[in-house]
Amino acid sequence: MVEANGLSMRYGPVEALSGASFKAYKGEIMGLLGPNGAGKTTTMKILTTQIVPSSGNGSVAGYDILKDPLEVRRRVGYLPETPPLYGEMEVAEYLEFVGQARGLEGAQLRKRIDYVVSSCGLREVFRSGVGTLSRGYGQRVGLAQALIHDPEVLILDEPTSGLDPIQIVGIRDLVKSLAQDKTIIFSTHILQEVEAIADRVVIITEGLIVADGTLDELVAKVSDKQRFTLTAGVSEADLKKALSDLKPKFALDFNVSSRDGFTTARIESSGGGDIWATLTDLLHTSGWTIRHFSRERISLEEAFRYYVKTGVGNRTSGENAATGERA
Questions:
Q1: Which of 57, 166, 201, 262 is most buried, taking the most CB atoms under 10 A from its CB?
Q2: For 254-280, what is each residue's pLDDT tens digit?
Q3: pLDDT at 89
Q4: Quick check: 154 and 115 in contact, CB under 8 A?
Q5: Longest CA pairwise span in the chain (Å)
Q6: Which of 308, 133, 302, 168 is nearest to 222 (CA)?
Q7: Cβ atoms of 34 and 40 closer than 8 Å
Q8: Comparing 199 with 163, which gets the higher pLDDT?
Q9: With the C-alpha atoms ordered 279, 284, 286, 288, is the resulting torsion angle positive or negative?
Q10: Which residue would you say has higher pLDDT here, 10 or 81?
Q11: Which residues pair with 15 in a beta bridge?
């Protein structure tokens, strides 16, 4: 539904975006994650045809952003970081104005206004002046204008910026519900946002795409070791023997300790392979009483720092860390 192919953007001597490529699919929520100034907003402005890239191309819902910008705009809903609101209008007037600008009229316009008012929780402020709204309600009105024409693609720039915790949860829930039949791309510099709602994450720093994948995939690529904790009703000797038998195949390191009739093993594998499945099979066939068995993983914060650091290093050498190619 959305494709970026080698997008680059220069503002004079400043390179805001360099060879950015990614895809977003129907029904997917894709998080564009990066520090402030990383190139997230520039990418969104290009894909919504607000600005023209210095080089590269892209498409939205099958339409070329350079050759068919009007068709792209018909199929995309865009929420900038600062919503495009008119403070002198009532919410009702504003939504009617935006709907008419999108080509809606009559019963169809009334139906879409009713939908966005209900979906975005605007009943209480429907007759209020836009300029009198709180930041949270202003953000909801901004999202409503992006949805008014029932677009196939939603592009949201920092949709929860400046909201309180309750408002953030409300916007997250709304975005997740909309993803059932839409493609959604949202930008953020907040890790909790992508953990809460993103199906896939693209990490960008200094204009470079440095990672692309699910949260699990991004974390797994950073960690070269797998770590597990196991507590079972078994003697230290028996557990050590069982793990020692697996040591050559999976390059296991482990230490064990006993307490109250249970033995705990902290296990680390650097040999690759599906050690999780092997350990699971061992526990199923052992007959031991299992109190605890879990896989440890590095945090998204650690993975994010790794990719950003790698990207900064490759900016110096001119390489794209996500592909290993010259940007």
A1: 201
A2: 999 999 899 999 988 876 667 888 888
A3: 97
A4: no
A5: 79
A6: 302
A7: yes
A8: 199
A9: positive
A10: 10
A11: 10
Task: From 278, 212, 223, select the one nearest 248 (Cα to Cα).
Answer: 278
Strand 208-213 and strand 63-64: the pairing is unpaired
d(CA 158, CA 204): 14
Mean pLDDT of the chain: 88
β-pair type (153-157, 200-205): unpaired
Q: Which helix (H) or strand (E) holds 49?
A: none
Q: What is the pTM of this model?
A: 0.76
Structure tokens at 78: 């865009």
Query: What does the pLDDT read at residue 227?
Result: 83
- Which H, E and C letters describe 89-127, residue by residue? CEHHHHHHHHHHHCCCCHHHHHHHHHHHHHHCCCHHHCC
Beta bridge partners of 229: 266, 294
The Cα 192–Cα 210 span in angstroms is 19
Q: In what order do the strands lie in the sheet with 2-11?
A: 14-24, 2-11, 55-60, 63-64
326 vs 99: CA distance, rounded Å: 44
Residue 3 gets which letter from DSSP? E
pLDDT at 320: 44
Q: Which amino acid is at 119?
A: S
Dihedral sign for Cα 173, 73, 128, 111, please. negative
User: What is the CB neighbour count within 10 angstroms for residue 62?
Assistant: 12
Give the pLDDT mean for 32-40: 91
The pair of structure tokens assigned to 192 is 């909790």
Q: 183-188 and 153-157: which strand pairing?
A: parallel
C-alpha to C-alpha distance for 56 and 54, rounded to whole angstroms: 7
